[in-house]
Design brief:
- By secondary structure, this protein is α/β, with parallel strands linked by helices.
- 41% of the residues lie in helices and 14% in strands.
- Strands 3-2-1-4-5-6-7-8 form an eight-stranded mixed sheet, sandwiched between helices.
- Helix 3 runs parallel beside helix 4.
- The longest helix has 26 residues.
- The radius of gyration is 17 Å and the shape is globular.
Length: 245
Amino acid sequence: MSETKTALVTGANKGIGYEIAAGLGSLGFRVGVGARDAVRRETAVAQPRALGVDAFGVPLDVTDDRSATDAAKLVEQSTGRLDALVTNAGISGEMGPGWEQDPTALDLEVLRTVVDTNVLGVVRVTNAMLPLLRRSASPRIVNVSSSVGSLAKQADPRTDIGPIMAAYAPTKSFLNALTIQYARQFAGTHLLIHAACPGLVATDFTGFHGPRTPAQGAATPIRLATLPDGGPTGAFFDDDGVVPW
């Protein structure tokens, strides 16, 4: 089995996910670029390869069980193990006026769709990849979350947390809670798992509004994916440190 570490990043064909994949590649990881769209995926593989990064495409729809299983088989055939999994794929769901999601008028199908991607998709992919992560001497999992998932911030009237997002924000709270449960399950092992907030990044996800670049948003996930052994586990971080749950 190669000594080169391998990472898989979901939703890596653009934006923050692409920058996480490219950043890990620049640190010497062989990087699996996970994405549904074949054309965008291959473009996202070709760009870092042109810079010397060892990247390979991984067809992956996080809402599909078979797709997650097939992705794990592809990674196993390509590298034999997985050292870092970054679950970046996520959606906001349909937005209303003012880029809000009014809880009193929330379409349950919209909520189900966002939960399936942002929460169930993480469980689906993580559990498919766990056998490969267990083969690593220092496995790392990073769940890309958001400060809107912080219940402490959401409940503090002194904190400007942005518009009401009754579908998206609770899925990030759910994701944070799941992160803690995985951390508890793997307590005392070398597997470290964290949630990461990239901040408000100007991507198509935000309508290109935000003070941060995708590369800046990728910084914390990359740092957590490369933590040394003996580091913390089961926490929520942004660039400034620990984010309250």
